[in-house]
Design a protein that fits this description.
Helix content: 25-40%
Distance between the termini: 29 Å
Mean pLDDT: 74
Strand content: 15-25%
Strand order of the largest sheet: 1-9-8-3-4-5
């Protein structure tokens, strides 16, 4: 019974202490042969300057898959092609990615990952890029005119600042909560062990 209870507590502990990540998904539409900007910002005044990367596909557990661009918090340190570049003020936390000369192969998911110091504090933002061509452009333009409020549009970097600040403030609270839960589970496990030992009858010599 004691082993079963310990395993149950350990399982619950692992669930509660799993990485808590903040992911924001957004659909962005670009047009064949043109450029598109995928917005990504982080709050430098709170976090400081941190390394970050852009990659293809959704953000993995660590780093970026198929890394396109990487910075050291101050400037771009590597890029796979001139097609991908950061035109914002990196020192102010604007690491929005511009993709030039869009082709059909550019459609798909992109990941912006800011590697903020601390366990599970990385800021991760997903974008699903749709590249339109021909009749799709006219159809998309008409739908914008008919119902502008129902369309997904590229978000400006400045519109993301309040959300980034909120994530920055919440992350330490969640970390403190997980540590408190860990301490509680350890204390409960110790108490259960002591209770189990006290309940066992002592062996007496005849």
């Amino acid at each position: 019974m004691f082993i079963t209870g310990f395993v149950a507590h350990l399982t619950a502990l692992l669930i509660l202490l799993r990485p808590v990540t903040f992911v924001r998904g957004s659909e962005v539409r670009g047009f064949l042969g043109q450029s598109v900007t995928l917005p990504c910002n982080y709050f430098v005044r709170v976090n400081g300057e941190y390394e970050m990367c852009w990659g293809r596909g959704k953000c993995p557990t660590f780093g970026c898959s198929e890394t396109l661009v990487r910075t050291n918090g101050k400037a771009v340190t590597s890029t796979t092609s001139p097609k991908y570049h950061l035109d914002g003020k990196i020192l102010e936390g604007d690491v929005s990615l511009t993709v030039d000369n869009l082709g059909e192969e550019d459609s798909g998911w992109y990941c912006c990952r800011v590697e903020i110091l601390g366990p599970f504090n990385d800021q991760k933002i997903h974008f699903n890029l749709l590249v339109l061509e021909g009749k799709e452009i006219s159809s998309y333009s008409n739908s914008l005119t008919a119902s502008p409020t129902t369309q997904n549009s590229t978000l400006t970097p400045h519109s993301m600042v309040p959300e980034v600040l909120l994530r920055t403030l919440i992350s330490p609270i969640l970390l403190a909560l997980r540590v408190s839960v860990l301490i509680c589970f350890i204390a409960i496990t110790v108490l259960l062990c002591q209770w189990k030992c006290a309940m066992q009858p002592s062996n007496k010599l005849p």
